[in-house]
Amino acid sequence: MVKVRFAPSPTGYLHIGGARTCLFNWLYVRRLGGKFVLRIEDTDIERSKKEFLDEILESIKWLGLDWDEIHYQSQRFQLYHDYAQKLIDEGKAYKKEGAVFFKYQFSEIKIDDLVRGKIVFTELPKPEEVIIKSDNSPTYNFSCVVDDYLMGINCVIRGEDHISNTPKQILMYKALGFKIPQFAHLPLILSAAGGRLSKRFGATSIREYRDDGYLAEALLNYLLLLGWSPGDNREIISLEEAKKIFDIKKVNKTGAAFSVDKLNWVNSEYIKSKSITDLAKIAAGYLRSKNFLPPDVDTRYIERVVELFKERISKLSDLMAWARFCFYDDYAYGEDAKKVLEKNLNRQVQVLMERFSSMDSFDKDTIEKEFRDVARSLSLKARDLVHPVRVSLTGEKVGPGLFETIEVLGKKRVLKRLERLCKYWAGSKE
Ligand code: GLU
User: Is 169 in the pocket of ligand 1 (CB under 6 A)?
Assistant: First the structure.
């Protein structure tokens, strides 16, 4: 039976790299049918924090992934001590000043990495290494080997940044008489410029992506593309589909470039593919969590607003930036937008308001027809009226189609806002 593990250290939040490692482990084992172990590597008591652990567990669940077993290394110190003692008894390790040192018996090491192919390690930087610190905690390489063995892990899938640990671990496996698992080292995730991910570009926690209005499925889909592709040009691949076709041997050897633009594109594709009802539910949940929605707003209205913006947003937070005017009247006209209002069209807008008031059906086609008709009757070009009306209804110069916007806002709100525009003109100098 295949058994893999994802082994985060709760000394920081779950980031893109960790989440991708988790996903690739999960896909590998779910495709082959085996067990997925989540191992919390909390041996560093000082730096491990509950806050980080909570975020890691919550983010894995939010992404839609799950695990079959969970273990905490902080509860397993006795096991590490027992194995260290075994090594001491066999003369393979020794105690000095309260710490336990392991003596490497080095010989050339060859592995057949599932991603990188054959790798040969011809030397080790040090002849010995601490495996138990004087504070009794194990070091990473040692607890990792003991646990991978005890937990029956037969395939270790992790980031390439651990490749230098692999020969050390193999020597420990040998010294302990454990069977060596297979390894798969995933390519690094780099910034678009080829360097390390920075806080501004990609090195944000999964919780921050969630907070920013990315959909879990979209983020997962994007993670999937970081170093792997199905071999054709498809980029939108659901988790269900990926589970059927994921092949670790097809993971790239070279670094994967992280691109926010690409992530935004993937997210917008998922947003567009949702039905209005589903998207409105997701958006409402998100906007409520941000205290953005007025308490009395009804579901149907949220659906209409979502429909208005669905094709334009790439993440749910865009709604907070762009759709505020749909829920609140208290916006100011933007400085730039005020320029559109320089020409006083008070009288003409009054005519438009009268026409709107008399309309029975307030749908976008009728609105457009009547709007153009009013403009014509006043010898105005439609756009001369479109721009100030848009500023009046939204506060901004640009936004979704005006007639759809008018329909969504509804007659009452529209008239109130046009009234405000007329007052603005009446109060400003002619
Ligand atoms: N705790 C290690 C890390 O977070 C795990 C490395 C491994 O998978 O062996 O990098």
Answer: no
